[in-house]
Design a protein that fits this description.
The complex is a heterodimer of chains A (302) and B (611). With 302 residues, chain A is of the alpha/beta class. Chain A is built from ten helices and 14 strands. The longest helix of chain A has 17 residues. Chain B is 47% helix and 15% strand. Chain B has a five-stranded antiparallel beta sheet, covered by helices on one side. In chain B, strands 2-3-4-5-6 form a five-stranded antiparallel beta sheet, with no helix packed on it. Chain B has a four-stranded antiparallel beta sheet with strand order 7-8-9-10, with no helix packed on it. In chain B, a hairpin with a 5-residue loop joins strand 4 and strand 5. In chain B, helix 17 runs parallel beside helix 19. The chains are: A alpha/beta (302), B alpha+beta (611).
Chain lengths: 302, 611
């Protein structure tokens, strides 16, 4: 039987008239790094809050490491780490004190991992957390989260606001641990290059619904990129199956579609394209096209 | 848990020591200008306001800082059960308050005890504990206001009134309310502390513990509501009874000058001399006496309940202060602070060591002016020049003095449990004379039913006009004229019953209509704490009160409407079944305040998105 570290079933969360999660069903297998991607308001934070028991679903259920999220035991909480984008830590304590404080709660604390990860960051143990840079704080937070040897580690936009160097260190540390440990990592980010580097699985959320749960490669395969000459202009999007986006560049229409086969080129010819060619697409462009398909934007097709 | 406590304490450690230093400096300043351990009402009120209010704000702030979304996740999402996390936070908060509050008080009390001759009783140390408990109540209300999803939790601040306002008859009643309130608040904090703070509690006990005190506050708000739907409209229309006195109502008397009132009261009297007395009263000197039963001190009472703290003798510059530990007045020089002797119930003694148990007072006396010491049984007069203590007046066996002497222009009055006594003023103030009353007038009704006594000096004695809203019973107002004769005779000249009422019965009894149960509860609690306070009725006294029959109907309708309102409100918000039942019962029992509490404690609208 497949073990899931996260399971949701028909999860719905409404805030008044707004629906943050809508009949959201997801099962995340154990192991690897699972990236969660979605635009602002897609419901990622709500999902994490429900999974950690900080919010109550309007309907449906959520399980974390096999346990109902609404009644998480202290043991299960000990097996699931959580790092938020603010890297919340007690600002009034020294780095050394915070580490010792955190260590006291986790019997499986792995000092070696801590030492290895903290080595990527220039953190003075005698420095108060309030005096650490954002990157140093992120490093300290990640070091402690990984040293707890959690079965599941949720990283909610952990590199937000970090400079290039800090971000690089963070990702290297994370990837290093991923190879050494048995921790399942849920990595939520808007940084596509990060996703591309670290993700084993890609979960895409949009407007509170699940849009994709597959490997990044499988997702990229779903997206195809076509270039065509439409003398009479591009037909309305309803006539283009799987339509994601289109742009007119140098008189040619560049079209991205989802879930279309090799015969899509013929379809484009049937609706007016004189010439058609297919081009490759990378993960970032595929995700961007996917996420922006339902967003309001000026029509750039003509 | 210990690590969490240490971390939380570390967060506020610096500020707690800063607060401690500031308070110590302030206390030292106060001690330089006045006796620190004999605080005046304003000083004590200010201390409570700053320290208890500060504790409340600290509780609010502490939990609010944790409640911010990411901080909350950081706090709660760890392998520690929620109740242990809260325990660590509250313990740290308690430690911070202890440092900021207890240490300054203790340093000052112990310092005065060790390094001065000022009287420091055990009760002064006990007071520190009470102060700490009061601060903890404030603190826990603050934490609860943030942790509990219900609105209006801050109304629980009214619990402070239950702690601070009464004069408890025993140490048990001094500390039991505070302990019970702290236990309840701790329970409510633990029930409220959960990962999802937006969840309203459905625990029946927690709902009841929140709703009952909240209803106690809301009662006052609802009582004031008569202003909106009765008083203000009538004032606007110009027909309010205050501006249009209702004839033959109790308040109608105030249309008359004091001198004319006996004439009004005696208008229908059949007494042959009624008209004569009415005429004489118009020419008489008018003064007044009250029969209010003062609450005498009790041994070991907290210093904030002390009245006048010492007798001062200007000529010898000595201060004589009552010690609860020794039950004696201990004297010291005003400047050198050296002991100058003690006063026991048998007179002056050279030193404290000379006092025997027979010298000690049996009860805590009132100190009146600069030369009277008064217990319920005896009024003593001190002659400092000759170091004499004389019994000025002692009522008959089985009779107690209700309050201190009332000094008026022409006489001194003393109310006892059975009589009103009028003394010649010069004789009363003569240090070498025993006070013998010129007039001793038995109370025509129970003293607590008498609002006031107006006195009219006559050629052959006094006319005493007794009056009260409940003179003849519950809301049976009347005024009675009694002639106290110079020869000792007492005769009732006439009584006027006021059959008309100023306001309709439903306005007059609105306080009882709003929530009979809360009124009974409030009276019973206070009656248990301070039975000597006649303003609070016992259960049997309350049950003996009779209302017009339609008042009972209004009460019943309000209770049913409140129960139905609570039920439908809970259904509308999909409140859990057990909570719905609890609220419905509370509505049926407590009536309107419970319905308002139900609205305050359940969500008004759905929360906004944070996704």
């Amino acid at each position: 039987m497949v073990q899931h570290c996260i399971e949701t079933n028909g999860l719905t969360k409404r805030f008044g008239k707004k629906t943050a999660l809508k009949d959201f069903t997801l099962a995340v297998e154990r192991g690897g790094i699972h990236a969660i991607v979605g635009s602002n308001g897609a419901g990622k934070s709500t999902l994490f809050r429900i999974l950690l028991g900080m919010a109550t679903p309007t309907s449906g259920s959520a399980k974390l490491l096999g346990e109902d999220s609404q009644n998480l035991s202290a043991q299960t909480r000990g097996r699931a780490g959580y790092v938020n984008e603010e890297h919340t830590l007690p600002l009034w304590m020294k780095a050394r004190e915070v580490t010792s404080f955190q260590k006291s709660f986790y019997p499986l604390w792995n000092q070696e991992i801590y030492n290895s990860v903290i080595g990527y960051f220039d953190v003075d143990p005698e420095q108060k957390v309030a005096g650490l840079s954002r990157g140093e704080r992120a490093g300290l937070n990640l070091s402690m989260a990984l040293a707890q040897a959690p079965d599941l580690l949720v990283l909610d936009e952990p590199t937000l606001g970090l400079d290039v160097v800090a971000k690089q260190s963070f990702l290297e540390a994370l990837m290093f641990t991923e190879t050494d440990g048995n921790t399942t990592i849920i990595y939520c980010s808007h940084q596509m290059e990060e996703i591309e580097r670290v993700a084993d699985e890609l979960i895409i959320m949009e407007k509170g619904t699940l849009q994709n749960n597959s490997s990044p490669e499988a997702f990229v395969e779903r997206i195809s990129y076509w270039i065509g000459d439409f003398v009479n202009g591009l037909p309305v999007s309803d006539k283009i199956p799987g339509y994601l986006s289109a742009k007119k560049i140098d008189g040619q229409h560049h079209i991205m579609v989802a879930d279309q086969g090799a015969d899509f080129g013929q379809h484009l010819k049937n609706i007016g394209a004189e010439t058609v060619s297919q081009s490759s697409v990378n993960l970032e462009r595929a995700i961007n096209a996917f996420l922006t398909k339902n967003h309001n934007s000026p029509d750039s097709r003509v | 848990m210990l690590e969490l406590f240490k971390s939380e304490f570390l967060r506020y450690r610096k500020w707690s020591f800063v607060a401690m230093g500031v308070f110590l400096a302030a206390f030292a300043f106060v001690a330089r200008i006045k006796p620190f351990l004999q605080p005046e009402a304003t000083q004590m009120a200010l201390s409570f306001l700053i320290m208890v209010g500060g504790s409340l704000i600290f509780g609010l702030m502490q939990m609010f800082l944790h409640k911010r979304p990411n901080h909350w996740t950081y706090l709660v999402h760890r392998p520690v059960p929620p109740h242990q996390i809260l325990l660590a936070l509250l313990a740290a908060g308690g430690a911070v308050i202890t440092i900021a509050v207890v240490i300054p008080w203790f340093v000052m009390t112990a310092g005065i005890d060790l390094f001065t001759n000022d009287i420091v009783d055990i009760r002064h140390y006990v007071f520190i504990l009470f102060f700490l408990l009061s601060c903890l109540v404030g603190y826990l209300i603050g934490t609860l206001a943030v942790l509990n999803a219900s609105k209006g939790i801050l109304l629980l601040v009214v619990l402070m009134l239950l702690l601070l306002s009464p004069d408890p008859v025993t140490n048990f009643w001094q500390f039991f309310p505070a302990t019970a309130i702290i236990a309840s608040l701790l329970y409510l904090n633990f029930v409220s502390f959960k990962p999802d703070l937006s969840k309203h509690t459905s625990n029946p006990l927690a709902i009841a513990l929140l709703a009952v005190p909240m209803s106690g506050v809301l009662v006052y708000g609802l009582i004031l509501s008569t202003g909106i739907f009765y008083h203000i409209p009538l004032f606007v229309m110009g027909v309010h009874p205050d501006n249009n006195p209702v004839e033959d109502s109790f308040g109608y008397m105030w249309n008359f000058e004091e001198k004319e009132r006996p004439g009004y009261v005696l208008a229908n009297s059949q007494h042959p001399k009624a008209a004569l007395f009415a005429k004489q009263a118009e020419l008489a000197d008018v003064e007044w006496i009250n029969t209010y039963a003062w609450i005498f001190g009790r041994q070991g009472q907290l210093p904030m309940k002390d009245g006048q703290y010492a007798l001062k003798h200007k000529e010898s510059n000595t201060i004589w202060q009552f010690s609860h530990d020794h039950m004696l007045l201990e004297g010291r020089h005003g400047i050198s602070k050296k002991p100058v002797g003690v006063i026991g119930k048998n007179g002056f003694l050279a030193a404290l060591v000379d006092a025997t148990d027979a010298d000690r007072f049996d009860a805590i006396p009132f100190l009146v002016g600069d030369k009277f010491i008064q217990t319920k049984k005896t009024l003593y007069q001190v002659n400092f020049d000759e170091r004499l203590l004389d019994i000025k007046f002692q009522p008959a066996e089985g009779t107690t003095i209700l309050g201190p002497p009332q000094f008026r222009e022409n006489f001194v009055a003393l109310a006892t449990s059975k009589n009103t006594l009028i003394f010649d003023k010069h004789e009363f103030l003569d240090e070498y004379e025993v006070a013998v009353p010129e007039y001793s007038v038995p109370h025509p009704v129970a003293p607590e039913n008498i609002l006031n006594i107006l006195t009219y000096r006559m050629v052959d004695g006094y006319i005493l006009m007794y009056m009260g809203r409940h003179y003849l019973g519950f809301h049976e107002s009347a005024a009675e004229i009694i002639h106290a004769k110079l020869d000792g005779g007492v005769e009732s000249i006439g009584i006027r019953k006021f059959s008309a009422k100023k306001h309709p019965a439903w306005v007059m009894h609105w306080e009882d209509i709003v929530s009979p149960v809360m009124r009974v509860l409030n009276n019973m609690v206070h009656h248990a704490i301070e039975p000597t306070e006649t303003g609070h009725k016992s259960f049997s006294e309350l049950m003996a009160q009779r209302y017009p029959s339609h008042i009972y109907w209004i009460v019943g309708i309000f209770q049913m409407v409140s129960a139905a309102g609570c039920y439908f409100l809970c259904r509308r918000h999909s409140v859990e079944k057990q909570a719905t039942i609890t609220w419905t019962i509370l509505g049926a029992v407590i009536s309107l305040p419970a319905f308002v509490a139900c609205m305050l404690m359940n969500p008004w609208r759905v929360e906004k998105t944070t996704a």
